[in-house]
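Format notes (please read before filing issues)

Several people have asked whether sequences and structure tokens are stored in separate files. They are not. Every record keeps both together, in the order shown below: the sequence lines, then the token lines. Line labels are part of the format and must not be stripped during preprocessing.
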Amino acid sequence: MRIAICHYHLQRGGVTRIILHTVRALERQGARVVVLAGEAPPDSWSMPHRVVPELHYDNMGGGCSADALHGHLLEAAELALGARPDVWHFHNHSLGKNLALPLVTSRLAQEGARLLLHIHDFPEDGRPNNYSRLLNQLAAGDHRRLSCILYPSAPHVHYVLLNSRDLGFIRDAGALENSVHLLPNPVELGGRKEIQDMISEVEFPKERLYLYPTRAIRRKNVGEFLLWAVMARSERDTFALTMAPSNPAERPFYEGWKRLSAELCLPVQFEYAEATGYSFDMMLQKANAVMTTSVAEGFGMAFLEPWLMGRAVCGRDLPEITGEFRDSGIRLPYMYSRLDVPVSMLGKDELVEKLIVVQDEYHDAYGLNRLDLSVPSLADTWIRDEMIDFARLDEPFQAKVIRRLSEKPEMSEEVACENNPLRKDYDQELIISNRNVIRSNYSLENYSEKIVDVYLKISESEPDTLYNLDGIKLIERFLAPERLSLLRM
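Then the structure lines:
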């Protein structure tokens, strides 16, 4: 079997790591494989590859026509494999990072090529700029035309999704039952077993450190992390964020949180990894627990990886992500699904006005004003009994709550949370149990077996009449008010 795997680049990161695992699994099966990317991998992540500069992001590769990219991909694949691929495997083809790419995948599908479209992130999910670019430049504002380009469907076109939510959305949009596959990412920490076992036996530190190992971008909901620092009110508690955002557009929000934390003397350390020089393993060893307050995740590695290193995960639950983790036997008792604050702390009229304006602008960015969709208002959906979930708010509103609670600690009693995640210690038997379940269900070996099985199913499929998924249904699902937050709008 000849396989061509395509991605924008091979820089260090989650998708490149997945590609590397896939290549190694295929090579063990005797398949011929090449990775086509706009940028070569680092030397330590060597894999059979060909650089196709036009495949990179438009702003990196300069952009090119779909005809040119189609020709360059075919040429590179045939030179590397000796013939056209039996299966083309594209990662995030529909994301809008390269406008020529979805036109190429659509053309290959029309030509009868067997495709595996591996979607890690959807443009419909909190990426209005990406979606608007695709809609206006590829489809002249026509949503149905864009669906034909982004989401071809036929027995020879298969989709891989990271979680059950996305799988359900794709099925709702009309995907063929036998052509969609749930393939969670593997959870592995290389050769760190000895360290994992050592950390699992370590006593919890006397000074409690709640570690948030993340780049502090907006969707990570940094304000909520600071809110817990305010409500902890303990000289023995420290809250640490490991890394600053690398995207310049994210930087002003992050710097705002740093200024507020300094002004209010909150027990929060920013850029903890750089400040301490600790490795990831050492930071975990210093931590009492790993915390997450994120409002959105694609796969949810943050809910799994710390258990392998002997530390519990606490913080904000994302049931549409964690539901399948629980189904596999992982217990997550230190999570909460809502953190409600009174709208009186915010000024209800100001809040409602903001929600109306933001929702209208968001719908306009997605072109929903051109569709006859009935969508409930954010205010009606989010405000319950004069309370609103803190994670729905943007930075100015969140900062207002944090200031109020810092000035008047007694007002913390008005904040409603069904499960306080901050503990003196966490159940060691539970940690060991979760670690064993994760090793069993999310191992690299399991992933390798599943991806090879998907390739075999695709290779056995026969090209047939092409149609397309209903992209409007994807918009409806992803833009449902109960899924949104001002932090992503």
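For reference, the curators noted about this record: The first strand starts at residue 2 and ends at 7. The chain has 20 helices and 17 strands.
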